[in-house]
Amino acid sequence: MSDKKISIPEVLADALFKDEDLESPPPIIKIGGKIIATEGNFITINGLPKSFKTTWSFYFIAAALLRKELFDISVILKADEKIILIDTEQSIHDFSKQIKTLKYTLKTKKLPEQFKAFLFRKYEPDVILNSIYTLVKEQRPKLLFIDNLTELVINPNDMIESKKVIQFLKLITAEFNCVIVCLLHLAKSNLQSLGNLGSYADRGAQSVLKVTFDKDTKASTLEPSLMRSDVYFNPVAITWNAENKEFTQIDAQPEKKAGRSKFILKELTDQDHYNRIGAIFNGDREIIYGELVEEIKKIYGIGTNIAKQQIIPYLAGNNFLKSNKGIYTPNYKKSK
Questions:
Q1: How confident is the model over 8-39, as pLDDT tens digits?
Q2: Relative to the CA of 234, which of 11, 65, 227, 255 has its CA 20 to 30 Å away?
Q3: What is the largest CA-CA distance in the chain?
């Protein structure tokens, strides 16, 4: 990452808000015509292992390279704007299979110069972070994929380490005006984003998308979990067509979309609560009740009533939070 030292006067001059009319940044990614990502932002695609998150990310790439809509996905790039994929998990042999599928979708035998992929499976997080910064600085891609964000930290529950990665994403999206697509695992225990890293990522993302896999129908569904810049799009489902040897789009099954209505407080572990509290408070800052309600709604993915009637009473009653005249602060003693 950059070693440049910035003085406080420079920071203040750079951070000062200027009351000017600004044009809306152009959308880079759309799904179903809804804005998912604009320049200078990052989004997350969350899902359990083997839910086909990586497959979806490759269709984002294919839509960009073909310059046409695929499975309701549109990626608006110019012919000279670059795409970089960072893979931190797959072996070269497994990754090659994904590339073959991409080339088949593109109807080409050779990858376009517009796209480059880098495999960092064998490297430590700090090496990967520094390499990503160098790549973005030198290559100036408009679109950067990181699969998987979890491998950029030693411990996804570590608050400081997780915050460092999210600040890194904010830095390079702002400095180089690109869009980053981050893939993240969900915890099997509660289907929430993994650790403090996941909580911070969801909080900072322009959009949070979720991928689910139905074992009965063999369908992988992409759906919105959080949309900051547009209304929610309709879920999109695909399944493998053995006859044509490719994925095809099928009707999504809205009745199977049980993610949000499935919230059960007792299924969350103490560590789950501490992860979310860490993301909400970002250290030991103080929060008034109204702000706490709104933050809990975002991080827990719930409505106002559940936040007020279940979560806050539970967190306060079980000493996760401390309250003094309506001012709330975190209580980390239990986790230690």
A1: 888 888 888 888 877 888 899 999 999 999 99
A2: 65
A3: 67
Alpha helices in 112-226 (DSSP H): 125-139, 159-176, 195-204
| Polymer length in residues for the chain | 336
The H-or-E segment that residue 306 falls in is helix 304-306
- Domain 21-256 CATH (choose: 3.40.50.300, 3.40.800.20, 2.60.40.3410, 3.50.50.60): 3.40.50.300
Measure the CA angle with vertex 75, ends 255 and 202; round to 5°: 60
Euclidean distance between CA atoms 164 and 153, whole angstroms = 9
229 to each of 38, 225, 238, how far by Cα in Å? Answer: 9, 13, 25
- CA dist., res. 312 & res. 248, Å (int): 44
**What are 68's two structure tokens?**
């046409």
Helices (H) and strands (E) in the chain, counts: 10, 15
CA angle, corner 270, sides to 321 and 298, nearest 5?
A: 65
pLDDT in tens, 160-203: 999 999 999 999 999 999 999 999 988 766 666 778 898 899 88
* Dist CA 41 CA 205 (whole Å): 7
**Nearest C-alpha neighbor of 220 from the set 256, 270, 268:** 256
| Assigned CATH topology for domain 263-335 | Arc Repressor Mutant, subunit A (1.10.10)
Nearest to 192 by CA among 265, 100, 112: 265
How far, rounded to the nearest angstrom, does the alpha carbon of residue 251 sit from its chain's CA centroid? 25
Strands 287-288 and 327-330 turn out to be antiparallel
Question: Do 263 and 306 touch, CB atoms closer than 8 A?
Answer: yes
Q: Where are the domains of the chain?
A: 21-256, 263-335
What SS3 state is found at 316? helix
Task: Name the nearest CA neighbour of 52 among 160, 262, 211.
Answer: 211
Residue type, 100: K
Find the DSSP H helices in the chain.
8-15, 53-66, 92-106, 125-139, 159-176, 195-204, 270-281, 289-300, 304-306, 312-317
